[in-house]
Amino acid sequence: AVVSTQSTGGLVRFTPLKPHPAMDFKALVCLLVFYVAQSNGAALPTGQELDYHFNQLGVNFGIKLDDKAVPLKGGKIYAEFPVHTIFRLIEGEPTLFKKMFIPFKEELYMFYNPGMLERLRDVLTVKAVITYKGEHYKSGIFDTKIEYTFVHPDYTEETGTIHAEGKTGTAVALDIVSKNAEVLPKFVLHPFHIEASFKPNTEFKVVYTASHTTFDMTLFKEGQAFKLHTIHKHLEHEQTYDVEINVAGKKIIFAHKEDGTEMTHLEFLIQGNIMNLKMVQMKGKLQATRWFEAGPVESTFMVKGNDYEFNVVFNNKEIMKSKMNVQDHMLKAKMNFDFLAEYKGTVYMDYDRAAQLFEIKFPKEWFADKKTFGITFNMKPITVDHPFFGGVYIATVLREDVPFFRFDLDYNFIMDAAKYELVFNHVHVETLNAELVDTFFYMLPITKYNFCHKYLINGCFGKGEFQGKIFFDRVNKNNFFNKFTITGKVIKMEAEVFEVVIDTVPTPYHFSVFYPRVFQRMFNKPMERITLDVHHVIAGEDRALTLTTNYEEMVA
Q1: Do residues 20 and 3 lie in contact, with contact meaning Cβ atoms separated by under 8 Å?
Q2: How many CB atoms lie within 10 A of CB 425?
Q3: How far apart are CA 76 and CA 549, in angstroms?
């Protein structure tokens, strides 16, 4: 199927060659829809000329500038976005469980406070009119006002304004004001006020005020001492946090108070300097948490020749003791968690740089089957000075010192004046002991079956491999962006089960996905691969897109 589109003067129109069928894609349709979907946006204010206008894909966007030669001087932006449609394309259709609870969602808000992203996910449409003045933004002076409207599933409208203003170059304020008579829990934006100001080389202050919360933070300097004072008020409670760094006295103090009562007080004394550190000593008290009781704490970090020692004593119990030898490139450490109410035991860590081997072993007390759990890492970087620029890295997982899972990574990263290139020669995953894998999943909050079918391509496997490449051309560009290539292939039990190709280097651009297991079920016919070639031509102000796909029913 071939689809052609044209645009003139910045306004893009798609010309369909066949009727538009229903499409039920996941990730692939997110890519295709940006080229072939029909426009469905609301019209912008009539009788007004816009300097730039985009009305496609359900998105309506227009700009009217005060001065085309200086776009930042000021202007108005009109925008409308189909938020619900965008989330549905990205995440897919909601599960039956989620659909069952949609009618009761507002009642459920009485028991928990949803995040802003979750509230935005339920919105049908977002409309905004943005008025800005930024001629002197480099001096910190600007004024931006956003009049927003969120249309909710019951077609009630949440309206308000967001006002950001830079004042005299030394202060900035942000206000969100609701125009509704009542702010409901389902609303995306709840009113608040933020104001930040500073005095050069003296003070920086931020104040945040919401309906039931105030957050006041001040950072100031006195000679060679820096102090951070924070006050957090919520309903009738007040918490204060103080941090003082005395550079001349080589001393750091941290304190926390709740309603005037000191809960935590720690003092750090430093001997030496950053380049020649001799000792760091910490003394004080820690407040109680859900993991441990309140009590005194003392810690010492000491340098003795080529040895670095680090010890921690809490509630008169030694909980950590480590020693690292710089000359021999050795690290040996143990952490005792017997001070915890639930996760007791000792964690051991060993690192041998000469052998490029790191080992960590967790205590059996942490696991229901009372078996130890360990991980070993073998590292063979291509360049020792740049260990993350490529090499061979092997991770082995053990239970009671018996290996049951292995992960091999062989990759190379190239960065020069012409390109960035990340090449995965192979990512190899293999089960070494199927019985231990099964018993390990018994302790997890998800079954092996659910984990394999929700998070792995083509379900469970005994041996799998991934090969891929990411290439970014730093020199050559297409009409809008630098040329790049992304390829990836998944092989399970010696059979190829998935491949993706996104290549914008040649003309036309080439996109391809090989995923027989999903495509055959999705289209109800023997289809293994979907391809899309995009030919993009620009002649002056005229633009044309020609899309060619191997899927016959894909038209726009």
Answers
A1: no
A2: 14
A3: 39
